[in-house]
Amino acid sequence: MNIETICQLLLATILGAIIGGEREMKKREAGLQTYSLVALGSSLITVIALFLDKEGIISDPSPIFLAIALGMGFIGAGTIFRREGKVEGLTTAAGLWVTAAIGLAVGVKLYILAGLTTFLALLIFLGFGFLENKLFKKGSQETP
Predict the structure, then answer these.
(1) Contact 83, 34 (CB under 8 A)
(2) Which value, to the nearest 10 degrees, does the dihedral of the CA atoms of residues 71, 55, 4, 9 take?
(3) Residue 41 is part of which domain span?
(4) Residue at 83 is within a domain
(5) Does residue 73 sit within a domain?
């Protein structure tokens, strides 16, 4: 393991924490720890897949990347439930899925893409949530 790998894991954790912190402020079930772990885990799996490819242990790491996306779909599905005639947890599921992709981007050294995606996710959670409440829920007091 080299210093770049350590920095990748730290960066993925921090980017996940940034998104998770916003969710924590809104008192969501999945928050700082969950989002940090998702980004860290997907980054670690990506780094391992690339290492195994480089060492000739596997011939193609892409199925492992697909497994990250599918695994997050499974975890995300567990956050979605129906209560009192409405569906809840869709935004959390989508946020976790994007956070896994951010971790994957860090794992393949696409740092600017990972940072930009983190910024866009925050924009969506903060800005779009506000707009959604103001424009489409007509005075609803719910937070996104």
Answers:
(1) no
(2) 20
(3) 3-136
(4) yes
(5) yes
Count of domains observed in the chain: 1
125 domain residue, yes or no: yes
pLDDT, tens digit, 9 for 90 and up, residues 43-98: 999 999 999 999 999 999 999 999 998 888 888 888 888 888 888 888 889 999 99
- DSSP-derived secondary structure for the chain: --HHHHHHHHHHHHHHHHHHHHHHHTT-SS-HHHHHHHHHHHHHHHHHHHHHHHTTS-S--HHHHHHHHHHHHHHHHTT-EEETTEEE-HHHHHHHHHHHHHHHHHHTT-HHHHHHHHHHHHHIIIIIHHHIIIIISSS-----
Within 10 Å of residue 10's Cβ, how many Cβ atoms?
13
Q: How many CB atoms lie within 10 A of CB 130?
A: 12
Residue 86: Cβ-neighbour burial (10 angstroms; 0-12, 13-18, 19+): exposed
- Partners of residue 83 on adjacent β-strands: 86
The answer to whether residue 39 is domain-embedded is yes
pLDDT digits (tens, 9 = 90+) for 127-144: 887 888 888 875 444 454
